Amino acid sequence: MAQIRHIAIQTQDEEATARFYIENFGLKEVKKLDSPRASGYYLTDGHLNLAILRFKNDVVAGVERGTGWSGIHHIGFQVESLEEIADKLANTTVAKPRDDINVALGLGAGGAQAGHGNVEVRYSGPDNVTFDVSQTGWMGTPTNKAHS
């Protein structure tokens, strides 16, 4: 069974947003991010990875939102098999790989290989909800299998 292991919040002030969740809910910082694509933090409660992200370009943010948008951006599911979930999602009429975002994130049109860690492929589903799929899990979660 897939498990929700990741929620990402897009913000315009990653420092203040991360501080809010750390100070008020006791989340722990797992990693500070600063790349050409996004800056922010990975936080955890020991079970779930909460990403606080400020995207630096509209393609990575998703053109439907862009860099100026704030709110819950996407969720992430950890699955047993990327191939199995890809086949299952291909048979739906509502789930579509987000090749634009996958390429912008360096995941490639088909997603990253298993073992990459964190997101391996991103999709859009019902109601235009964007979601990640990972076989290796996210930093700060108990089932993270990444070797990086």
Task: Write the topology of this structure.
Elements (H helix, E strand, L loop, with lengths): L2 E8 L3 H12 L2 E7 L3 E7 L4 E7 L2 H4 L9 E8 L3 H9 L5 E2 L1 H6 L16 E4 L5 E5 L14
Parallel strand pairs: 1-4, 5-8
Antiparallel strand pairs: 1-5, 2-3, 3-4, 6-7, 7-8
What would your notes on this structure say?
With 148 residues, the protein is an alpha+beta fold. The protein has one domain: 2,3-Dihydroxybiphenyl 1,2-Dioxygenase, domain 1. It has four helices and eight strands, in the order E-H-E-E-E-H-E-H-E-H-E-E. An eight-stranded mixed β-sheet has the order 2-3-4-1-5-8-7-6. A hairpin with a 4-residue loop joins strand 3 (38-44) and strand 4. The mean pLDDT is 88.
The number of domains is 1
Percent of sequence in beta strands: 25-35%
Q: What name does CATH use for the topology?
A: 2,3-Dihydroxybiphenyl 1,2-Dioxygenase, domain 1
Number of strands: 8
CATH architecture, by name, is Roll
Q: Could you name the ranges where pLDDT drops below 50 across 5 or more consecutive residues?
A: none
Structural class: alpha+beta
Please summarize what this structure is.
This protein is α+β, with helices and mostly antiparallel strands. It has helices spanning 14-25, 58-61, 82-90, 99-104, and strands at residues 3-10, 28-34, 38-44, 49-55, 71-78, 96-97, 121-124, 130-134. The protein has one domain (3-134): 2,3-Dihydroxybiphenyl 1,2-Dioxygenase, domain 1 (Roll), CATH 3.10.180.
